[in-house]
Write a structure and sequence with these properties.
- The chain is mainly α and about 240 residues long.
- The protein is about 80% helix and about 0% strand.
- Helix 1 packs antiparallel against helix 7.
Length: about 240
């Protein structure tokens, strides 16, 4: 059990650090109905995450993709594909974050600084005005339209299928994974439910910090996951 938890940890943290998902939540906190839209958004994210995990578990089980036999061609190909996606995502995240810092460092006036400041992704620019249905769809899309997230869930499915645990424990680990990757999006719901809505100034500051720094954090995590997946592709099993 402990072994599979350690193997799942870097993947779980990488999904939790998804910047677009966090930015959408911050925008929805400024909605006129923050609790409703955040609950619906969280619901979409949970459905997408759990559905993706169930899909990969079913598909991998059907095709018998396993590390039980060293050198399994299907398992090796899948690990290699996941590592490529993780490395590509890490490079993209790093280059985007570095470009942002370069523009900010070159700014000499307030106008230049404002122009250089990172802009919100198109998907979440209008999140303040989202309704319940659109928030749910965005929750689905933010996860499912990100190939890195989907590949990370595939890696988790492989870990679960090859874990030396009972079926009940696999279900428990799966639920724990979904809960963990949903936690960053659930915290605002808890805060709003408790009547503690963050002031707009604080939301703006947090959003700026995420835009400036989250890229470096996610890139580092994806590099770790990519390296682990590449190791497993080469050796045919856990590192």
């Amino acid at each position: 059990m402990l072994d599979v938890l350690w193997r799942m940890l870097p993947v779980t943290l990488s999904v939790m650090a998804s910047p677009v998902a966090i930015l959408a939540v911050l925008g929805m906190l400024q909605s006129s109905h923050p609790l409703l839209v955040n609950v619906c958004y969280l619901g979409g994210w949970v459905v997408a995450t759990s559905g993706s995990l169930v899909f990969w578990l079913a598909v991998l089980s059907y095709f018998g993709i396993s590390e039980a036999h060293t050198g399994s061609a299907l398992a090796t190909a899948l690990h290699a594909s996941i590592s490529v996606l993780c490395f590509a995502g890490a490079v993209w995240s790093y280059r985007r974050a570095r470009a942002t810092l370069t523009r900010l460092a070159a700014a000499r006036t307030l106008d230049e600084f404002a122009a250089a400041a990172p802009q919100l992704p198109g998907l979440v620019k209008d999140s303040v005005g989202y309704g319940a249905r659109r928030s749910f769809v965005v929750g689905l899309g933010v996860f499912l339209l990100n190939p890195t997230n989907v590949s990370l869930v595939a890696a988790t499915a492989i870990d679960l299928l090859n874990a030396h645990v009972s079926s009940v424990q696999v279900v428990g680990l799966s639920i724990g994974f979904v809960v963990a990757v949903s936690l960053p999006l659930a915290l605002p719901v808890i805060a709003v439910t408790a009547g503690r809505r963050a002031p707009d100034r604080l939301i703006t500051r947090v959003r700026g910090w995420v835009l400036r720094n989250n890229g470096f954090i996610r890139a580092s995590m994806l590099l770790v996951v990519g390296f682990l997946q590449l190791t497993r592709a080469v050796t045919g099993g856990p590192p």
